[in-house]
């Protein structure tokens, strides 16, 4: 399929999806794809396989599937590989995760059992509440080269590859000198610098092998200046960070509505109860710091204190995550929002979102794999800001603030697809209703 604006390569052959982490999110994603291609389930929540776009004016009433607008990989053409620090195959890991019912898993047991993880790159200093028993050995350079070899081997069996990080949240890290350029990073790699995290090793390996990388956690990864430089140099798409699920999804839906009505917010208190491996990892204060920073930035941008100091200048935002093993993957998010309106009179909004974390994240993994592959076939390189819709803390170019309003993100996402297809962008101006001279 050749579009008017971009000579997008067709989505022919098999797309290899390499997943960092074979836990609750990724086994739910893989099991879902296997059930979808067997006709047992529908891809609910997946933009690539359920989404539509309007083309032209409203009077035309012309809607198409996104896969008809631009060439997208379908579920039937995905092939999976994964790294993990535990040796369980995908079926065993899915049983332990406890997200999907035993009956559902039995329908795809053969496919899941066949997927055995590659040894993962691991450093307990970055994920303190886990101990891996299926890990690669060696210094930082040797680990990076081993990951590159894994990617090259997988490439032999597929036509294209993307890598999606869906493993645990690492401790909070600020960029330092070793993250500032590729030259500095590679010198640190050769020196086995302990400040290089496992997630940086995966992203470096992918970009060196010209493979797109999507970061689904709040770790410092492809947003490190060295990785941005490498993505530009090798002309590879990157995007991140932190899958937008649960409580933050609700914030990006509700906060824009409050702001659009010019209602004030004096405080927003958020707490979570979570019992899966993600909850266990986030029980460590240093890993929680990474998640807290990612989640906190949403309100700062949507509710601009500089633009509306009288409405949001004193906004107090508090975030808590509580590890509660009995809850498993069924996360519960509580929000108390203290707002005020006309004549400063106070009001409140209460939200209790009983969600399933991996059920919300799985279609995001599918979408990022599909759209990062599209970006590569379209010749896009570097930061893919048009995919902000899928992230808590969207990566942007230097000097550009991140857009967190979910509705604006969706417009940008679909308009980018329209642009790629050579279709007119939709601005909702409705100029056809005005006389012109």
Layout of helices and strands, plus pairs?
Elements: E1 15-20, H1 24-37, H2 47-50, E2 52-55, E3 62-65, H3 66-69, E4 78-84, H4 90-97, H5 102-107, H6 109-114, E5 118-119, H7 140-155, E6 160-165, H8 182-190, H9 198-208, E7 213-215, H10 225-233, E8 237-240, H11 246-260, E9 264-274, H12 277-282, H13 285-302, H14 309-312, E10 316-323, E11 330-340, E12 346-356, H15 357-377, E13 382-383, H16 406-420
Parallel strand pairs: 1-4, 1-6, 4-5, 6-7, 7-8, 8-13, 9-10
Antiparallel strand pairs: 2-3, 9-11, 11-12
Q: What is shown here, in short?
A:
This protein is α/β, with parallel strands linked by helices and 437 residues long. It has 16 helices and 13 strands.
How does this model look, in words?
The protein is α/β, with parallel strands linked by helices and 437 residues long. The chain has two domains: 15-243 and 359-420, Rossmann fold; 247-356, Dihydrodipicolinate Reductase, domain 2, CATH 3.30.360.10. Helix content is 38%, strand content 18%. It has helices at residues 24-37, 47-50, 66-69, 90-97, 102-107, 109-114, 140-155, 182-190, 198-208, 225-233, 246-260, 277-282, 285-302, 309-312, 357-377, 406-420, and strands at 15-20, 52-55, 62-65, 78-84, 118-119, 160-165, 213-215, 237-240, 264-274, 316-323, 330-340, 346-356, 382-383. A seven-stranded parallel sheet has the order 5-4-1-6-7-8-13, with helices on both faces. The chain has a four-stranded mixed sheet with strand order 10-9-11-12. Helix 8 (182-190) packs across helix 10 and helix 11 (246-260) runs parallel beside helix 13 (285-302). The longest helix is centred in the last third of the chain and has 21 residues, at 357-377. The relative contact order is 0.15.
